[in-house]
UniProtKB/TrEMBL annotation:
Subcellular localization: Cell membrane
Lineage, broadest ranks: Eukaryota, Metazoa, Chordata, Craniata, Vertebrata
Name the UniProt record assigns to this protein: Ig-like domain-containing protein
GO BP terms, alphabetized: adaptive immune response
GO cellular component term, pick one: T cell receptor complex
Length: 107
Protein backbone atom coordinates (compact mmCIF):
# COMPACT_ATOMS: atom_id res chain seq x y z
CA UNK A 1 0.00 0.00 0.00
CA UNK A 2 0.88 3.67 0.06
CA UNK A 3 3.35 4.73 2.76
CA UNK A 4 6.00 7.26 3.73
CA UNK A 5 9.38 6.69 5.39
CA UNK A 6 11.33 9.22 7.43
CA UNK A 7 14.85 9.18 8.83
CA UNK A 8 15.20 7.78 12.33
CA UNK A 9 15.52 9.42 15.70
CA UNK A 10 15.61 12.91 17.18
CA UNK A 11 17.84 15.55 15.59
CA UNK A 12 19.71 18.10 17.69
CA UNK A 13 20.98 21.17 15.86
CA UNK A 14 22.63 24.43 16.79
CA UNK A 15 20.70 27.60 16.02
CA UNK A 16 21.13 28.81 12.45
CA UNK A 17 22.22 25.33 11.29
CA UNK A 18 20.87 23.86 8.04
CA UNK A 19 18.09 21.30 8.53
CA UNK A 20 17.12 18.40 6.30
CA UNK A 21 14.55 15.79 7.31
CA UNK A 22 14.32 13.08 4.70
CA UNK A 23 11.00 11.69 3.55
CA UNK A 24 10.48 9.13 0.81
CA UNK A 25 7.20 7.61 -0.24
CA UNK A 26 5.75 4.56 -1.92
CA UNK A 27 2.53 5.03 -3.83
CA UNK A 28 0.75 3.49 -6.80
CA UNK A 29 -0.54 6.81 -8.12
CA UNK A 30 0.37 10.46 -7.69
CA UNK A 31 -0.32 11.34 -4.07
CA UNK A 32 -0.46 14.76 -2.48
CA UNK A 33 2.40 15.14 -0.01
CA UNK A 34 2.37 17.00 3.30
CA UNK A 35 4.57 18.06 6.19
CA UNK A 36 2.88 18.61 9.54
CA UNK A 37 4.46 19.90 12.73
CA UNK A 38 3.48 19.58 16.37
CA UNK A 39 5.10 22.15 18.61
CA UNK A 40 5.40 21.37 22.35
CA UNK A 41 2.03 21.68 24.08
CA UNK A 42 0.19 22.37 20.82
CA UNK A 43 -1.91 20.45 18.34
CA UNK A 44 -0.81 19.14 14.98
CA UNK A 45 -0.70 21.80 12.25
CA UNK A 46 -0.06 21.73 8.54
CA UNK A 47 3.35 23.15 7.67
CA UNK A 48 3.36 22.76 3.89
CA UNK A 49 2.05 20.62 1.04
CA UNK A 50 2.60 19.75 -2.61
CA UNK A 51 -0.08 18.29 -4.84
CA UNK A 52 1.87 17.38 -7.98
CA UNK A 53 5.36 16.56 -9.23
CA UNK A 54 7.90 19.40 -9.04
CA UNK A 55 5.66 21.45 -6.74
CA UNK A 56 7.56 23.25 -4.02
CA UNK A 57 5.84 23.90 -0.71
CA UNK A 58 7.21 26.65 1.52
CA UNK A 59 6.24 28.16 4.86
CA UNK A 60 8.10 29.87 7.72
CA UNK A 61 11.42 29.36 5.98
CA UNK A 62 10.82 25.64 5.43
CA UNK A 63 10.76 24.18 1.93
CA UNK A 64 10.06 20.78 0.40
CA UNK A 65 9.98 19.82 -3.26
CA UNK A 66 7.92 16.94 -4.68
CA UNK A 67 10.43 14.81 -6.58
CA UNK A 68 8.54 12.09 -8.44
CA UNK A 69 11.67 10.48 -9.91
CA UNK A 70 13.25 9.89 -6.49
CA UNK A 71 9.85 9.59 -4.71
CA UNK A 72 11.07 12.09 -2.13
CA UNK A 73 9.73 15.12 -0.28
CA UNK A 74 12.60 16.20 1.96
CA UNK A 75 11.99 19.06 4.38
CA UNK A 76 14.71 21.73 4.47
CA UNK A 77 15.37 24.99 6.27
CA UNK A 78 18.44 27.18 5.85
CA UNK A 79 18.64 28.44 9.42
CA UNK A 80 16.77 26.74 12.27
CA UNK A 81 15.70 28.51 15.43
CA UNK A 82 14.93 27.22 18.89
CA UNK A 83 11.28 27.99 18.15
CA UNK A 84 11.35 25.35 15.39
CA UNK A 85 11.62 22.58 18.02
CA UNK A 86 8.82 20.07 17.60
CA UNK A 87 7.76 16.78 16.03
CA UNK A 88 7.65 16.80 12.23
CA UNK A 89 5.39 14.40 10.33
CA UNK A 90 5.61 13.54 6.65
CA UNK A 91 2.32 12.31 5.20
CA UNK A 92 0.68 11.46 1.92
CA UNK A 93 -2.86 11.31 0.66
CA UNK A 94 -4.02 9.53 -2.46
CA UNK A 95 -6.87 11.58 -3.86
CA UNK A 96 -8.20 8.61 -5.84
CA UNK A 97 -8.53 6.05 -3.06
CA UNK A 98 -8.71 8.42 -0.12
CA UNK A 99 -6.07 6.50 1.80
CA UNK A 100 -3.49 8.28 3.94
CA UNK A 101 -0.25 7.39 5.67
CA UNK A 102 2.37 9.13 7.75
CA UNK A 103 5.54 8.92 9.77
CA UNK A 104 6.98 11.18 12.42
CA UNK A 105 10.34 12.72 13.18
CA UNK A 106 11.26 14.63 16.33
CA UNK A 107 13.46 17.69 16.00
Amino acid sequence: GDSVTQMEGPVTLSEEAFLTINCTYTATGYPSLFWYVQYPGEGLQLLLKATKADDKGSNKGFEATYHKETTSFHLEKDSVRESDSGVYFCALSDTVTGTAGGAEHKL
